[in-house]
Amino acid sequence: MRISVTQDACVGAGQCALVAPELFDQDDEGIVIALTLEVPEGQEAQARKAASLCPARAIQLIES
Amino acid sequence: MPGKGDSADRELVSKGVLIVGGSVAGLTVAETLREQGYTGAVAIIGSESELPYQRPPLSKQFLSGQWNEERVQLTSMKRLEELGIAFRMGVTAERLDPTENKAFTTAGTFEYEHLVIATGAKARTLKGASSQVQVSYLRQLDDAKNLKSAIKAESQILIVGAGVLGSEMAATLAKLGHRVTLVGNFPNPRLGADLEILSKAAKKILLDLGVELQMDCTVEELSRTPVGTLAVLSNGFEVVADLVIGAVGSVPNVSWLDGSGLDTSNGVLCDAIGRAASGIYAVGDVARWDNGLNEAGRIEHQMMAIGQAASVGTLIATGKSGELPVPYFWSELADHKALILGVVGADSEIEVVAGSEESLKFLAVAKSQGRIKGLVGLNMPKEFRAMRPVVERATRVNQGERRQ
User: Fold this and answer.
1) B56 contacts in chain A (CB < 8 Å)
2) Out of A12, A48, A57, whose CB is closest to B74?
3) CB < 8 Å to A57, chain B
4) Contact across the interface for B330 and A13, Cβ inside 8 Å
5) pLDDT digit string (tens) for chain B, length 404 residues
6) Alpha-carbon gap: B394 to the closest alpha carbon of chain A (Å)
7) What b/e readout covers B288-299, taking b as 16+ CB neighbours within 10 angstroms?
8) Contact flag B32-A52 (C-beta cutoff 8 Å)
9) What residues of chain A lie within 8 A of the CB of B339, using their CB?
10) CA-based Rg of chain B, rounded to a whole angstrom?
11) What is the ipTM of this complex?
């Protein structure tokens, strides 16, 4: 599973960094940063949760 | 295309979930059901002729022209098909018979096994506006499109209601170069919570943008003149506006539930995990969860809608509710971003823990009787997140007690 983030869409709510801190962080403005492009095995559930809780739908997951 | 004018998905959901309401709450229930392995039929009916889209950007990024229509879409028909979610747009629910498990709609009768009510809310209309006066409201995508086309260059705009929506629109429109008068019946604008620290910041930001604030007053009269709409305020101030926008709150869309036996006074009353009756749930702006978070129970924040929907989707799919959402919302005034978490209000004791009010950059905890109840941040997102788990834990203790 791969991660793609749309920084322009991010509203900086920080839902992703809270539920999946190993996959996402925020810059000083609160904007999403993907810490990895490939979701490590076993972390798919956190990735999905982060994507579905994002109020701006700024996180896309591409199933491989 | 799923459910295009046939009865297939009507019959299907008799062994599945019917979601009434095609906005973010309804969509999130459907997506969560699939995520949690639910294999029954899932159908969403939405009254608008749109796929699910985001509402928060309508008063900001969409109104300012930064984002187009495509950008506010939450999903695509292709994605819904992949998930096995039937989506029918332009269909309005008209009546519910919970004893027969039937919802009557403009597209026929749907039988269901589980029903999720996610019909949202509509804009409250301004009192006393004569029928000759045109008042605009912003709630849906088509409202936003109409508003954008109604605004001519360098207009004089009157916004009635200085809550979060009115304040955001005022900031957006002032930044675009319009002359904006914002009227509110309290001393300072309110960014979704009655907190002095935020209201004072909002006032400063709006004044810096050139917004004319007329606070602590109401609109006494609106009348049509050859040069625009004349508004007379209770403080004697008069303004002739090219456009009048009402932003005085919302009313839950519950009229279709009349006669259903459900308690729909100020929203559909649910228990602490979203159950309104056996097999019936409500989420989002239309829902009033009895969870001790606030007296009214109806919390109109997008992230509350998403959180409730994820929890109810999990409950239907697995029999156990998901993690319950803690109130959390954000607001943007031009380039300033506020984040508010937890249960906060006029009686909160506010303690600034980083930054300062003067710099329009701060993080503050909200306490009640010495205990942390909430978190308020302006332009400090990273610090806010670092503090967030502490506040969430404190709020969940209260919810947990009500859950049994």
Assistant:
1) 11, 55
2) A57
3) 54, 74-75
4) yes
5) 444 445 556 666 778 999 999 999 999 999 999 989 999 999 999 999 999 998 999 999 899 998 899 888 888 999 899 999 999 999 999 999 999 999 999 999 999 999 999 999 999 999 877 778 999 999 999 999 999 999 988 899 999 999 999 999 999 999 999 999 999 999 999 998 889 999 999 999 999 999 999 999 999 999 999 999 999 999 999 999 999 999 999 999 999 999 999 999 999 999 999 999 999 999 999 999 987 776 567 888 899 999 999 999 999 999 998 878 888 999 999 989 999 998 888 899 999 999 999 999 999 999 988 888 899 999 998 889 888 888 888 777 655 544 43
6) 16
7) bbebebeeebbb
8) yes
9) 12-14
10) 22
11) 0.78
B201: distance to nearest CA of chain A, Å?
18
User: Which of these, A22, A52, A30, A46, lies nearest to B384 by C-alpha position?
Assistant: A30
CB within 8 Å of B335: residues ≥ 6 apart: none
Q: Do B337 and A30 touch (CB under 8 A)?
A: yes
> Which residues does B237 contact at the CB level (< 8 Å), separation at least 6?
B214, B217
Testing the interface with B: which of A29, A52, A53 to mutate, by most B Cβ within 10 A?
Answer: A52
